[in-house]
Specification:
With 278 residues, this protein is of the alpha/beta class. It contains ten helices and eight strands.
């Protein structure tokens, strides 16, 4: 059986666009443009044919920028964009963006929102209903402190697929598992939740080892199963945490016996409903 190989989480950005907020000179090596020619050699080296391109700025303008890149870049299979879910016009904005079949999901930057209970805001209900109507995925950029609220939201919308980015960024540097472990497992009991095996190296100490990441990766796989876990590089952010090749090799060690994690699952979760699963 031939398996697709898809990087389910990567970014492109152009600094001069100016709406990234978090991206400043203090970001070090990340503070420069990262565009398709920069990633292409890494994809080729690891026989990765497709990617899911994920937003990095809280603006519809950036979403349109990414959709333009996707239009011109055959390796980009789909885009996860951004919409202000609390805006009364969110359903109309989602409907408009969804006309572009390259849009496969949306991601509010929950980790950067001051109100930890934002996900519980009833003003978001209409936006989530629009996600379901247009068969778009919700990428959850959350921290461990948001998992209980995400559980409530995911229960409220059983027809929306929730993808937890970076396994909700557990406290790997501190070696802490709970309450992250318990709350992630509770979320995994919902059939409409999935989890990305991504971003773990960034949450570890600078001199991380495979053993440091192993308990967290093992818990993701045990909770969600191989069919609801998908690998992503989080490039170029991963370049600050060992680099693309090291993370890919580590993920292969941690989950390599489940080839679907490295592509087939992403194709099914992101691309099939949007007519992109060719």
């Amino acid at each position: 059986m031939t398996h697709r190989r898809i990087d389910a989480h990567q970014h492109y950005w152009r600094v001069a666009r100016g709406d990234y907020g978090w991206l400043t000179p203090a970001s070090g090596l990340l503070y420069r443009d990262y565009m398709p020619p920069d990633l292409a050699p890494l994809l080729a080296a690891h026989a990765i044919g497709e990617t899911i391109l994920v937003q990095a700025a809280p603006s519809v303008a950036e979403t349109n920028f990414l959709l333009e890149i996707a239009r011109d870049t055959p390796s980009v299979a789909g885009v996860v964009g951004w919409v202000d879910f609390a805006d009364g016009d969110a359903p109309a904005t989602i409907a408009s963006l969804a006309q572009n079949r390259l849009l496969v999901g949306l991601r509010p930057m929950v980790q950067d929102i001051a109100d930890d209970d934002w996900l519980l805001d009833p003003r978001l209900d209409a936006a989530f209903a629009a996600l379901a109507a247009h068969e778009l995925v919700f990428d959850a950029l959350v921290l461990p402190r948001h998992l209980r609220q995400l559980l409530v939201r995911a229960r409220r919308h059983p027809n929306v697929t929730f993808v937890i980015d970076h396994a909700a960024k557990p406290f790997i540097r501190a070696g802490t598992l709970d309450p992250w472990r318990r709350e992630l497992a509770e979320l995994a009991l919902l059939p409409n939740t999935t989890c990305k095996l991504s971003g773990l190296a960034t949450e570890a100490a600078e001199n991380w080892t495979v053993a440091d990441l192993a308990p967290y990766a093992a818990h993701v796989l045990a909770s969600f199963g191989a069919e609801r876990t998908l690998w992503g590089s989080d490039w170029p952010v991963v370049e600050k945490a060992g680099g693309y090749a090291r993370w890919f090799d580590t993920a292969q060690t941690l989950a390599g016996k489940h080839p679907g994690v490295f592509g087939d699952n992403a194709a099914r979760l992101y691309l099939a409903t949007r007519g992109r699963n060719a």
